[in-house]
Write a structure and sequence with these properties.
370 residues, mainly beta, Immunoglobulin-like, Jelly Rolls, 2 domains, eight-stranded antiparallel β-sheet, six-stranded antiparallel β-sheet, 30 strands, 6% helix
């Protein structure tokens, strides 16, 4: 009897998962970082184990998960057996060594939240150029902590006509009082004598995903803005907050006043194929960003009525559905564009027009209502 009691006491009554991991190089591409493939020191009170992946679309239907459980305990389904997680959580049952206790865990995968697609415009550098200075915006990737230079503006071109100017004197700059924290301010300005000479009399404040090519500013201005960066998911919606005040006098590219015309701000996004039929790279520029045959879908705010209060805007992508395999292969580019004058690329607008933007978010998840 004494021997039997000692033997029963030694049987472990714990039934916990201590760690869980995905094993195999073939699965690494599903994660932003290999460290996300393993979960250590799982709490004894935890009932949900969730792995974070780049995309649920590309998640294999056969995925093995390995487990380390408390000594003597068993787990069903067995550690390392292949399961289909694309249909939702898989329930694992851990039974203690003594068989008296069981715990169930829901093991699942979710898409990584990507704060890099939520833009608060808090990060910027001050660039010195002669006796002028301007702001240059950037993002910090929440997954890697690395700086991402997603944004460009026409500031580098606007300062060509300026003398001893500060960042706040430029068409695009970081403003102190955004909707939350700092924000983005865009304003339409007189381009100075140089701009008037080349029939480019105004400089609209702008910020866009892409690259500004300074060498093209004077003689080929519509090719100065190269729009878009690669993306591995399909956008659905863009939301954010804005304030807008149009300038007093609307003029054409010859600085002739157009009576009754009121300036308008512009916010739009374009999702487009980044290779042509021969496999050559494709970029959009100021002359085709809204008309290129490579555009798959685009989103535009219908109107941005003047307002001195932070006001929410929302726009949905309309067009074709992208091929999932091509999306995962990064065969598409995305650009998001803000401008204080809708026709600023044609040098039409009102000096003094000001658009403020903050807390912009791109959504990639469709709902039943979309």
């Amino acid at each position: 009897m004494l021997s039997s009691c000692i033997k029963d006491e030694l049987m472990n009554s714990e039934c916990d998962i201590l760690s869980a991991w995905v094993e195999g190089e073939q699965y690494e591409e599903n994660f932003y970082q290999t460290s996300q493939m393993r979960m250590e020191n799982i709490s004894s009170t935890e009932k949900e184990i969730v792995f974070t992946v780049r995309s649920l679309i590309s998640l294999p239907k056969e995925m093995p998960i390995f487990f380390n459980v408390t000594p003597g305990a068993t787990i069903q389904p067995a550690s390392g057996t292949v399961q289909d997680f694309t249909k939702g959580p898989v329930v694992y049952t851990v039974t203690s060594q003594d068989g008296a206790w069981q715990r169930q865990y829901n093991v699942s995968f979710k898409e990584a939240s990507l704060p890099t697609y939520k833009f608060s415009f808090e990060h910027y550098n001050t660039v010195e150029s002669g006796d002028n200075a301007y702001h240059e915006f950037y993002e910090i990737d929440s997954q890697s902590g690395q700086i991402r230079h997603l944004w460009a503006s026409g500031n580098a071109g606007a300062i060509l006509a300026k003398v001893s100017s500060k960042p706040e004197d430029q068409p695009t700059y970081s403003m102190e009082h955004g909707y939350i924290g700092r924000g983005l301010c865009l304003n339409t300005q007189d381009a100075g004598s140089l701009g008037h000479f080349f029939k480019k009399p105004i400089a609209a404040g702008n910020l866009f995903m892409g690259r500004f090519i300074l060498d093209n500013v004077v003689f080929n201005p519509l090719k100065a803005t190269e729009f878009g960066y690669e993306i591995d998911r399909e956008p659905v919606r863009v939301t954010g907050y804005y304030k807008y005040r149009p300038g007093a006098v609307f003029t054409d590219m010859n600085m002739n006043e157009i009576p009754g015309r009121v300036d308008e701000a512009s916010i739009y996004a374009v999702f487009y194929r980044n290779k042509d039929e021969q496999g050559n790279k494709v970029f959009l520029y100021g002359d085709d960003v809204l008309s290129s045959p490579y555009i798959v879908s685009k989103a535009q705010v219908a109107s941005l009525p003047p307002t001195d209060e932070w006001t929410r805007f929302e726009m949905f992508f309309e067009g074709e559905d992208a091929d999932d395999a091509m999306v995962l292969d990064k065969s598409f580019n995305l650009t998001l564009v803000f401008s204080s004058s809708k026709n600023g690329a044609s040098f039409e607008g009102a000096i003094g027009s000001e658009l403020c933007v903050d807390e912009v978010e791109i959504s990639f998840e469709k709902t039943d209502n979309e």
